Amino acid sequence: MRALVATLLLALSAAEAHSGDSHQGLMSWPVDTVVTLPLLVLAITLYVIGVAKLWSRAGAGRGVRPWQVACFAAGWLSLAVTLLSPLHGLAEKLFVAHMAEHEIMMAIAAPLLVVARPLATMVWAVPQGWRGGLGGLTRLAPLRALWRFLTEPLAATILHAVALWAWHVPLLFDAALDNEVLHWLQHFSFFLTGLFFWWAILNGRLRERGYGAAIFYLFATALHSGFLGILLTFAPEPLYAGQSAAAAWGLTALEDQQLAGLLMWIPAGLVYAAAALALMAVWISGSGARAFTADREAATS
Asked: C-alpha angle 161/172/82, rounded to 5°?
């Protein structure tokens, strides 16, 4: 509770201390075709056209459900917020904004896009003659083996953890702030390993095992990411030399780091915990339904 109160108080003090330059930073919308073009191609050309073609043939709401379209839209918009909104420019000045970018990508955009399962829908956007070739690629033994490895729950959890911890090593973190290529590589690794992690949890082989192991991996991820957040929150001094512009927002570098640590520790950890509890509810409900069916069949036999 004290941590949450401290977060609110520091956020309020930062808001009150905004200077004219800070407000200009808030209103700055980055335009980067390297990011904008792939997002437009992904959302408009592939997914929207794919949905339109699929529904025109199978009927509205069939093949891809409206709730999946909504999940894709929400996931894409979340990703766009992190990369195309003023948050992206603000993240170059405030560590807490930088952390918000990463958490939105890993804990919001990635699971929403995984739940939407857009790849099959996107295939409908390509010419019909190409679909067989794309399907053939997915049947190649090396690609299938690589996919099985990347979406194996233990491997996906470890890869996601390695990406999270490695990029928060001060040397790598500061290097990413100074080098645009490394910065985008950092974003990409967080998002990609997040996709593999959530796919393994929600759509992978764990569904067939009753979600029990998935719950464990979610709690394990909440635990280790929360521990990293605790380290950032209670570090006695700033760990990253590159995040040194917090003074313009009424924060010291250490306070900025503490806010970032709290964001990783509490809100982001709650996402993983909430997902684990939701899967637990689904698992228990499914077990109860199967037990009821088995008892009824035994009674009628």
From this structure: 70
**Single pTM value for the model:** 0.82
Which pairs with CB-CB distance under 8 Å and at least 24 residues apart come from 252-257? 253/95, 255/10, 256/94, 256/95, 256/96, 257/95, 257/232, 257/233
8 A C-beta contact, residue 63 and residue 55: yes
pLDDT higher than threshold 90 for residue 93: no
Q: Is 30 helix (H, G, I), strand (E, B) or coil?
A: coil
Number of H helices, E strands in the chain: 17, 0
Full DSSP string of 184-222: HHHHHHHHHHHHHHHHHHHTSGGGGGTSHHHHHHHHHHH
- Confirm if 169 and 185 have CB atoms less than 8 A apart: no
Please provide the DSSP assignment of 31-57 as one string: --HHHHHHHHIIIIIIIIHHHHHHHHH
Total residue length of the chain: 301
Task: Write the pLDDT tens digit of every residue in 205-223.
Answer: 666 555 778 889 999 999 9
Instruction: Return the structure tokens found at 59.
Output: 């009927």
Least confident window among 119-128, 130-139, 286-295:
286-295
| Alpha-carbon radius of gyration of the chain | 22
Other C-beta atoms within 10 Å of 7: how many? 19
Q: At what angle do helices 170-178 and 180-202 cross, to 10 degrees?
A: 120
Residue 42 neighbours by CB distance under 10 Å: 17
pLDDT (0 to 100) of residue 1: 40
